[in-house]
Amino acid sequence: MQQKPMQAERATAGYPEILDVTALSDSVEKIAHDNRSKPEDGRAAILALFKQVNQDGRDKARAILNEDGSGMGCARRISWLQDQLLIQAYRYATQYMYPKAAADIAVTSVGGYGRGTLAPGSDIDLLFLLPGKQGAGTQKIIEFVLYLLWDMGQKVGHATRTVEECIRLSRTDITIRTAILETRFICGNEALERELVARFDKEIVRITGPEFIAAKLAERDDRHQRSGNTRYLVEPNVKEGKGGIRDLHTLFWITKYFYRVTDTADLVKLGVMSRSEYALFQKSEDFLWAVRCHLHFVTGKAEDRLSFDNQREVADALGYQPRPGLSAVERFMKHYFLVAKDVGDLTRILCAALEEQQVKEIPGIGGMFSRFSNRRRKIAGTQDFVEDKGRIDVADAEVFKRDPVNFIRFFHFADVRNLELHPNALKSLTRSLSRIDDALRDNEEANRLFLDILTSRRDPALILRRMNEAGVLGRFIPEFGKIVSMMQFSMYHHYTVDEHLIRSVEALSNIEKGTEAEAHPLADSLIRTIEDRQVLYVAMLLHDIAKGRPEDHSIAGAKVARKLCPRFGLTAKQTDTVAWLIEEHLTMSMVAQTRDLNDWKTISDFASRVQSMERLKLLVILTVCDIRAVGPGVWNGWKGQLIRMLYYETELHLAGGFSEISRTERVKVARDRLAAALSDWPEQERMAYVRMHYNPYLLSVPIEDQVRHTQFIREADRDGKVLATMVRTDSFRAITEITVLAPDHPRLLAVIAGCCAAAGGNIVNAQIFTTAFGRALDTIHISRQFKDDEDETRRAATISKTIEDVLSGKRRLPEVIATRTKGKKKDKTFVISPTVTISNMLSNRFSVIEVECLDRPGLLSDITSMLADLSLDIASALITTFGEKVIDTFYVTDLTGEKITTDNRQALIAARLKSVISEELDDQKPRVAPGVVAPLPPKGVVVKTPVSDK
Asked: Which band of pLDDT confidence, cut at 50, 70 and 90, is reported for residue 828?
């Protein structure tokens, strides 16, 4: 942001540490002298000189940034460097190239450059001011300057106008008006620039203030909406995102327009900001500019999105170090989000000041304040707050000082009365946060009111988010304050921890209101039967509250809950339930996605941890809300199906019904149901096809799919096809289903996965079942790519053709996959230590191998190929991806059908698998059957290959 003291410094001293202006001027003079007879021949030398000076200057600016960490200092140095190059370019054009041309123009900067700040990759925005109609000579001078900058590789935005044209266009174009607001003189005819500034102030600013402010606030809201309307996205945009540099620019534009100041320091004199708030403004601005400058230097371009692959390098450049529980990059990003929150605080303070100046009453302000139309009036039940045009405001400046419980009452009244929050009240609240102490935290009424807010049947997430934004939530619950703005360096998590927790409460509230019945039918039905909704809401808010600690966050979170729940007024029984839910909040999700739900031991072990139906119901709802709040697209129908299956099997077990006998009965019912659905088939043929399916298939596949599969197999048999495929699109679940009928063999899973990789299909789940007569029926679900069913069907047909060609031997898979992955760079953004565990305790019949590592192309195919090499028979496998991390679980036996029991054999299997999943093998030659393309997060693949029941 443009600052007067710094401008004065540049005008007098400049930045000699990055450029010797005299030396540059002398060099230009020498080039002109050497080419005095033909100045145009000197252009190449000027260009080479400028390129070198520009590169050297930016390198020095980067070195200084690394030393002092000042982002504003770096941005101002680069801007000043650009000024000097423009001054010399203009000088060469007017004095040597076209000395006889009329050159009475002013070269000015606008935009960010107009504020005297430039990021390394920023555009150079210029305004050439003309005294009148542009002549041929003037055009040549401007073109010389512009082409020189373009040839230097710079991105230049420019306009050539008279003062009158600027005034006329700014009356109707907010963008042009904003640009002219930031006009800064560089060289040429300074009188023209002064005339523009004077006329702009008199003819535009004085009479269009309300209109401009409303437009800028609306523009800001639209920008926030496009970026997700949250400042807590884990890959934020430093410039355009909520709480970013553009928000600070909006503050500058509004204050300059309304308060008629050119320096934000003047807002302190006007009483708009306190000295501490102004210091916060400067600190926030400097930090954001440091991040942006480092980001441009690291990427070598104008990149403003702080993506995962850049965060680590920027954190290193800024000097962050790891701490127990948090990596260096996570500490950096937490600081970033706290600064973004500070920017939000400053915005609220400014909006409050605008209202105090009666901006809302000026015709045309509209936008932010026009929706409030009621008069200021008292609120029943309190003398400390009033309703002002649909918003809750403080009755006087001493409200929070007089009674700190008002920090909670304020939000409680806002919830109960459905009121917006008045900026003036938020300003007063923000300035009083230090009064939230242990006495308030232990206050019975304050905790009762907070619990009412949390369990509100209206919109608890909205009030919690407002409490969090205002800084109250983190101070009232210090344990929550520790995870405010904390991010996890993972592709799986889309939001900071505090935002995730609030979104979890929001998901729970929506389910309770009945608005999610279609997406979550089981949770929707269960929530109406639970005995205690308070424990569910408290557990929801606290389930990740111990993130960032060295101890497992589920165990540590349960300890925090045992401390906080009595404070909130919960009973000992309620506290035990909340602590249990937090300690087990990941259990159901992990069991559903990484364990074989057709294995009796899986259900038995899970039921022993749950112990009661009430806990099971609570855990289902908690699990659904937790996954839903991770981010867009993380929840899908397949995860819902797994959780429902786990619930119903566990419900049966807790009721005493899960046994081999009941399983046999259920298989008989399922087989009879399929036979009835095929009643129009000839009896002999119908029974033959019904018998070809084994028990796990009949128990886990919906009847409508069983019918469709059986008809598919029948048609293939009639056509004499040994190998056949079938395609079906599913727009609701955003997947496309490919069913493959093929001869079964040990490497079939590896080949299928490799085919999908070769054809560019991202597997989101798969079911592979053995049928009678040695055939496999494989159903693969891949991520949908096209909205139109016709386009998606054509794509799926291409993938099916690849599968058929490879399985029939027409094409060799290693060659296809090698062509597809040729030239792709290895992603080194995330580091996950590969682990392999082998357990004989998780199943009565199988050894369970669990592999955890970084996901990559071909991983599933490589692992299954290695298991085949080790002479292991895969009975079932579950492949689940959490962002960049994959957890693969394989239920295996040796070729005789026995578990792997010897220590030496287990050690060999673990070592061989670890060699496959370790990144050291990435540069070696391709293995026999490279597999699945790295999926878009999140992915849940379930593969079932049952052992024959005969």
From this structure: low
